[in-house]
Design a protein that fits this description.
Keywords: Amino-acid transport, ATP-binding, Nucleotide-binding, Transport
CATH superfamily: P-loop containing nucleotide triphosphate hydrolases
GO molecular function, one term: ATP binding
Shape: globular
InterPro entries: AAA+_ATPase, ABC_transporter-like_ATP-bd, ABC_transporter-like_CS, BCAA_Transport_ATP-bd_LivF, P-loop_NTPase
Distance between the termini: 23 Å
Mean pLDDT: 93
Bound molecules: adenosine-5'-triphosphate
Radius of gyration: 17 Å
Strand order of the largest sheet: 6-7-8-3-9-10
Helix content: 25-40%
Protein name: Amino acid/amide ABC transporter ATP-binding protein 2, HAAT family (TC 3.A.1.4.-)
CATH class: Alpha Beta
Pfam families: ABC_tran (PF00005)
Number of strands: 10
Order of helices and strands: EEEHEEHEHHHHEHEHEEHH
């Protein structure tokens, strides 16, 4: 069952069409990964979905509601959370205060601490003193406090060790298993495919693959060709 549906979406930057006709479906309780080489347009598409930038054309539905004309905060209130690339914590505030500050809508901090017990141990520490991985957990945790139906995550792995990325990936899988729809943009393709139900690959602004995550994981040469934009499936 699709909870987020992107239909023929076009997104421009500085008047140039960066995303051209993207169609993506994210199901409740599933991890959907969006892969592609640097500059393919993944971040631009996520920003168009969350409303950080307007889309030029196309339709975006969250559940049965059309949201593409709503402001970003209204999309967030409707149940769409976006963990943006390079999003950071409030370094001088404690972990607890970072969470409280994001708690406007009555989210449950205990649920975040259950997903990321590492944060419980650091609850009084200034967030700036947390490790890179813990800070990313806090960023994801803050997004969860809005009780999203869908979580968009853009490159949570930037600058983190592979073992930490694996830990974060497991948490996203757990989150999806609890019923959230997750759309994950990730450079570590095999790690992302390892937790994915469904996968898309973008090349030069267009979707060149939509299918099973496991099928792509099993076919490294296909993945490589898709990244290079040499093929389309
Ligand atoms: N403000 C902008 N004005 C014009 N072009 C832009 C702007 N921002 C990004 N672009 C271009 O849009 C294209 C897509 O960028 P985007 O960041 O969406 O790709 P990406 O797939 O997320 O890549 P990465 O993995 O490097 O983040 C790139 O060619 C980039 O140079």
């Amino acid at each position: 069952m699709s909870i987020l549906s992107i239909q023929d979406v076009w997104v421009e930057r500085s008047g140039l069409p960066i995303v051209r006709g993207a169609t993506v479906s994210v199901a409740k309780g599933q991890v959907t990964v969006l892969l592609g080489a640097n500059g393919a347009g993944k971040t631009t598409l996520l920003e168009g979905i969350s409303g950080a930038i307007p889309i030029a054309r196309g339709a975006i539905s969250l559940g049965s509601a059309r949201i593409e004309k709503l402001r970003a905060w209204r999309r967030a209130r409707a149940g769409l959370a976006h963990v943006e690339q390079n999003r950071t914590v409030f370094r001088d505030l404690s972990t607890a205060d970072n969470l409280w500050a994001a708690c406007r809508t009555g989210g449950n901090i205990d649920e975040v601490l259950e997903l990321f017990p590492e944060l419980r141990k650091q609850i009084s520490a200034p967030a700036g003193l947390l490790s890179g991985g813990e800070q990313q957990m806090l960023v994801v945790g803050r997004a969860l406090l809005g009780k999203p139906k869908v979580l968009l995550v853009d490159e949570m792995s930037l600058g983190l060790a592979p073992i930490v990325v694996e830990r974060l990936a497991r948490a996203l899988r757990q989150l999806a298993d609890s019923g959230v729809g997750v759309l994950l943009v990730e450079q570590f393709a095999s790690l992302a495919l390892g937790i994915a139900d469904r996968a898309y690959v973008m090349a030069k602004g267009e979707m060149v693959y939509a299918g099973d995550g496991s099928a792509l994981l099993a076919d490294e040469s296909l993945l490589r060709a898709l990244y290079l934009g040499d093929t389309r499936v």
